[in-house]
Batch of 4 targets.
Target 1
Amino acid sequence: MFFQNILGGSDHCILIYVRERHNFMSLPLVVVLFAAAGIIWYVVMIFNGLIAIRSDVDKAWSNIDVSLKQRHDELPKLLDVCKGYMEFERDTLQKVTQARNMYQQAASIDQKAQADQGLTSALRGFFAVAENYPDLKANSNFMQLEKRITDLESEIADRREFYNDAVNTLNIRIQQMPDTFVASFMNLSPRAMYKVEESDKADIPMTFAAAR
């Protein structure tokens, strides 16, 4: 009986020791699991954030593209109205037509941005020259088209600003640590800003062809 009590007590101590050792060994494992879960959660948050910013950039460009197409579709109507009045301004009309054709051939964002700058410049020159034709300025169709295109120009400018803000945010994020590692995994690269040349900001001189 005495030895049985000793053996029984010994087994109880061993059981307690095993349990304590198991709990001691489980603690680091729990810490590692929590740390791993935290890292995964953080990476997922970065991933989702970059996706959201990329979507903002794509959406901003899509909005610009819609306005560019709408302006592009209005130009043939404008040219048709003006041909009867500005028959001696063939060079001015030709510049608008060429700029429109350049936009039609543009495929990438950079090409469309460059074509937009050329078309904007051509239209500014066109409307400046049109000031010399009061009958044209009084034409109701011309007034409607001029207002429509002018409104689209303002809309494009506003959307261009939003696009550049989104691009700037994306470019900063993908260069910051640790976002740059996730961005590399997503194959994200810096986007080009939609810049306006200084020449396009300058006033257009109002030069006119001599009427015959």
Target 2
Amino acid sequence: MFFIFSFLIVSIFTESTVDSKGTVYLTRERMVELEKQLQQMKSKGRAEMASKIAEARAHGDLSENAEYDAAKEEQGLFELRISKLEDLLSRARIIKKGDLPKDAIYILSDVTLEDLKMGGTVTYKLVSPEEADFEQNKISVTSPIGKALMKRHIGDLITVQVPAGTLEYKIIDVS
């Protein structure tokens, strides 16, 4: 049973964080953050949109009111963002680091790399595309570096093609 579960987890998290059923894998923290964002958008955001439209409507003839047209277009885009976020959350499943195999690099791994060209080290956390934040050193498993790291081990050398050129790293720690 554990073997089958491990195989399922490994197969899900090796190429993408979206499986064939459209499931999106998120950490609990990110799920809570997105739920709060959605709640705020539905309550305060919609109220602000309605206020903008009412203010623009008060400016007179709607057939020649560019401000009203812009506010309605903004409302449409805002509702689209809400719809996309609702869809994402409806397909989201929470993942925990403890559920993943520890024999190699997978999603939620913290990976320390030695830059073989420039020297120095950098530590990244591999996350789903929805959680990626380069400023926090959270990189997507679907990014070029993320893809190159999947299933690798301490001591492995990787070469990654990125828009800026070729990167060469040695994996020095995984946790």
Target 3
Amino acid sequence: MILYPGLYVSGFGTGTKGFPSALKRIENQAFASSKLTTVTIPSSVTFMGDRVFINSNVQTVTFEGDSPTFRIMPGSGATDHGTFEGASRLYSITIKEKNGDYTSDSYGMVYNNSKTKLVLVPQGRTSPYTFAVYFKKAASKNWSTAQAFKSNSIIKITPTAAVKYDICVKVKDSTGKIKKKYFVLTVTK
């Protein structure tokens, strides 16, 4: 069974909805503009398309099994979008099994399975947080600002040369506490 936009979702109304175990794929924008607030994805689902929850009322997504194959962040192409892109009300993601590529914490944030990298903060959760991103060529002493503290959590940096870049991401919570993380991005031709 494959879930396409509007085909199976449009008559659900509001509230919570689970799906049959025969469901294997959830295609692009399947829950677009849906009034549902809670969605439970069965363990039978192995693939989720792009912008699955765009402009919807979905606040909570629970994966009964491992997380299926999906793109966390938008890709490099103009038509490459992440599964959760545009899910502005999404507040919490729960992944019940810990065997797949991703896992979640008690706050509804998604990490790689070893919990060494935070890979997704649901957009509905970002309102008490602001993000700042700085970058520089590794050989340089001067940092450039990609974004000063703002609430949008997707920031694009366009490299100007094939070199190593130092990146600093700062996250500020509603109390003013700031955490920062540094990483290196290597750009090749």
Target 4
Amino acid sequence: MNEEFIIIDHSNLTDEYLDIIINLKKQHWNHPYDSQKKWIYDNLCPDDFHLLLKIDGVYAAYMSICNIDVTIDGNSFVAKGLGNVCVDLTFQKKGLGKRIVEKANEIITRDEDAGILLCHSHLVPFYQRCGWFDVQYKSAYIGDNKYDDIVMMYNLNVKYPIVKMTLNRSF
């Protein structure tokens, strides 16, 4: 199996790559093409990037990696936010989801950053197997909007209990 990772700066995203990304995402989030395109351009910033995994010449997995301003109990830092993690349905159950998250972990570690992601409870065991941990908090916000689901982090020592966590934007 020939594996290739492709990193694309959001500011350099071509229509060809946009089509590939939307076609992968549509398998998991059934929104019209124009809606997916609008979400990508409304929610990603020029310094964010896209990570694609190609297997034997076929685009098999995708995620976005965004620079997110995080404040935990008054301490602010920038973390890499993983979003839109998905694997082509024909490649599922072959370890490619784990593989693309591991690549993101390498990037986070190399850049001496922390990682953050938002997820549903059924995905927690998957991300834990990838080295991520769920964060316990009393309140969390994305911008001014209260967030009540699961926050997971990577490569960060967290002091508990977290009273308030704020992320500057959705990702």
